[in-house]
Amino acid sequence: MPAEPAAPRTVSERAVVLLIGAVQFVNILDFVMVMPLGPDFAKGLGIESSHIGTIGGSYTAAASVAGLVGGYMLDRFDRRKALAVCMLGLVAATAAGGLSTGLSTLLLTRVCAGLFGGPATALSLSIIADLIPAERRGRALGAVMASFSVASVLGVPMALKVAEVGGWRLPFFAVAALGLVVATAALLLLPPVRGHLGQGGAARAPGVGALLGRTDVQLSYLMTALVMMSGFIVIPNISAYLQQNLGYPRDRLWFLYFVGGIVSFVTLRLTGPLVDRFGSFRVGTAGVLLAACATYVGFISYPAWLPIPLVFMGFMLAMGMRNVAYNTLTSRVPDNPVRARFMSLQSATQHMASALGAFLSSRLLMDLPDGTLGGMGTIAWVSIGLSLGVPGMLWVVEKRVRSREQALALATPASQGLAVPLSSPANPHT
User: Fold this and answer.
1) What DSSP character marks residue 151?
2) Listed residue (114, 102, 104, 7) closest to 56, CA to CA
């Protein structure tokens, strides 16, 4: 007699969020630790501080290219296996980064890391969107995005401390080892994610051209570009600015990221439910306004009496509110068969906008004879100007998404359930 098919792997929503959060922690830490470590490896490799943005931009530019390619391919595969391949590539590239001998080799390894890290982000968000119902997706995305905060609270401070003890290369090797463990766990414990392949889903899904022809998709990507470019024209240069312009001690830098990370972690955990309740437009607009204030105070008109950690905490809070709001909203734009394609193209947009912001900052900044960075006020004003275009995009996209979801609800009386079996689908607190 033919063998009976194996029962689908059962996993709780909480476990899915935990595993994807771990994947994102490694992925994000691999990216964000490079910028705070910038002055360290710049000194070790003889690189000018104004080029740190170029190094950060090389990762995001490569991730953007990978996202564009992934937009044509990722919806053809089981998302779990595709994620494992991307994570293993990221691990190898990160380990190679620790062996860099100069600017060219470091740029090459960061490009390789971006080629794998970009699709890994898109796949992670697609898995969450596939497995978590829309009414709990804001909470789940907030939890997964808290990996950014954990990377700040634990990862970046530890990387800075490890670099103090063992040199700037050691954090690269440590993150690569951790990534290998997490990639193995995700491959073994996550359920297969093939719902988008059912009934010829990927084969019959609209092509990239049809997807990009939708107005809500175009607005989502434009909003994404504004958010990311406004952030990454400033973010890669924060560590150098604090140390060289404001005289913040290198041996206390870990504490700054630790405190800022705690604020961001709490913010992300609270913002997800707020988005579910009040909508992305209201929460995201509040985040944009707070970010504008924090950017002005921190980089344009910094008062000497104001503690630097307080400004940094405000900046992290604002970034968290804004990012959860727009990511939750954009996750509602695509239909299931094209979700990874949409997310991959969004990831490409995110990374390309980040790269443009980082490269632009390198053009606008200069190393002054007194050792400070010149031009920080200019890039701060550009950041504020870009971010002020976000609220209008949030309002339009949210209105269009709600109209479509209401029409679908009227046409579909019964819920279709989750893409794969989950052991506790009805738990609203997962």
Assistant:
1) I
2) 114
To the nearest whole percent, how much of the chain has pLDDT over 90?
Answer: 12
The count of residues in the chain is: 430
Query: Could you give the CA distance from residue 196 to residue 75 in angstroms, rounded to a whole number?
Result: 7
Task: Decide: helix, strand or coil at residue 132.
Answer: coil
Number of domains the chain contains: 1
Q: Which domain holds residue 45?
A: 13-192+207-404
Query: Which among 90, 41, 87, 88 is positioned nearest to 62, based on CA atoms?
Result: 90
Q: What is the DSSP letter of 314?
A: H
Q: Residue 251, CB half-sphere, CA atoms under 13 Å: how many? A: 1
The answer to whether position 409 is within a domain reads no
> What pLDDT shows up at residue 42?
79
Q: Is 180 inside a domain boundary?
A: yes
Is 304 within a domain?
A: yes
What pairs with residue 373 in β-bridges?
367
Paired residues of 367 in beta bridges: 373
Q: What is the C-alpha to C-alpha distance for residues 174 and 165, in angstroms, rounded to an integer? A: 13
b (16+ CB within 10 A) / e for 256-293:
bbbbbbbbbbebbbbbbebbbeebbbbbbbbbbbbbbe
Q: Yes or no: say if 319 and 286 are a contact pair by the CB < 8 Å rule.
A: no
Phi, psi of 374 (to 5 degrees): -95, 145
CATH number of the domain encompassing residue 107: 1.20.1250.20
Higher-pLDDT residue of 403 and 140 is 403
For residue 426, being part of any structural domain is answered with: no
In sequence order, which residues have a C-beta less than 8 Å from that of residue 134 and are 6 or more positions away? 332, 405
- Looking at residue 279, what DSSP letter applies? -
Q: Which residues pair with 422 in a beta bridge?
A: 11
Please report where in the chains the tokens 């190679």 appear, as a residue: 96
Over residues 381-417, the pLDDT tens digits come to 999 999 999 998 899 888 888 887 777 777 665 444 4
Say which residues have a Cβ less than 8 Å from residue 35's Cβ, sequence separation at least 6: 52, 56, 235, 236, 237, 238, 239
Residue 59's identity, in one-letter code, is Y
Cβ atoms of 316 and 263 closer than 8 Å: yes
CA atoms of 107 and 301, how far apart (whole Å): 33
* Cβ neighbour number for residue 16 with a 10 Å cutoff: 24
Q: What is the 3-state secondary structure (H, E, C) of 217-248?
A: HHHHHHHHHHHHHHHHCCHHHHHHHHHHCCCC
Give, rounded to a whole angstrom, the gap between the first and last alpha carbons of the chain. 41
